[in-house]
């Protein structure tokens, strides 16, 4: 499974390691992802999602139902 947030679509970015002598080599910045279970009371079931930590903060603020509704509208979540 790829390292992509299922709610926000965040994925790895590409950048450079820069040494003291300003030599540049390619590197990858992975998204900070966590596999987490959420309970949805409207559907009375548990779902497991691979989400970024910033998405977890958004879920804590808005609620899981609102965040899933937005993700489905944007096409990130197909469940």
Automatic annotation (TrEMBL):
UniProt keyword Ribosomal protein, yes or no: yes
InterPro entries: Ribosomal_bL28, Ribosomal_bL28/bL31-like_sf, Ribosomal_bL28_bact-type, Ribosomal_bL28_sf
GO (cellular component) term, any one: ribosome
Keywords: Ribonucleoprotein, Ribosomal protein
PANTHER family found in the cross-reference section: 39S RIBOSOMAL PROTEIN L28, MITOCHONDRIAL (PTHR13528), LARGE RIBOSOMAL SUBUNIT PROTEIN BL28M (PTHR13528:SF2)
HAMAP family named among the record's database cross-references: Ribosomal_bL28
Record-stated family: Belongs to the bacterial ribosomal protein bL28 family.
Stated name of the protein: Large ribosomal subunit protein bL28
Organism from which the protein derives: Salinimicrobium flavum
Source organism phylogeny: Bacteria, Pseudomonadati, Bacteroidota, Flavobacteriia, Flavobacteriales
Gene that this polypeptide is encoded by: rpmB
């Amino acid at each position: 499974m790829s390292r992509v947030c299922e709610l926000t679509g965040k994925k790895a970015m590409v950048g450079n390691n820069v040494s003291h002598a300003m030599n540049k080599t390619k590197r990858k910045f992975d998204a900070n992802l966590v596999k987490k279970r959420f309970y949805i009371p409207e559907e009375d079931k548990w779902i497991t999602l691979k989400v970024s930590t910033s998405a977890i903060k958004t879920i804590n603020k808005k609620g899981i139902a609102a965040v899933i509704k937005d993700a489905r509208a944007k096409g990130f979540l197909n469940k």
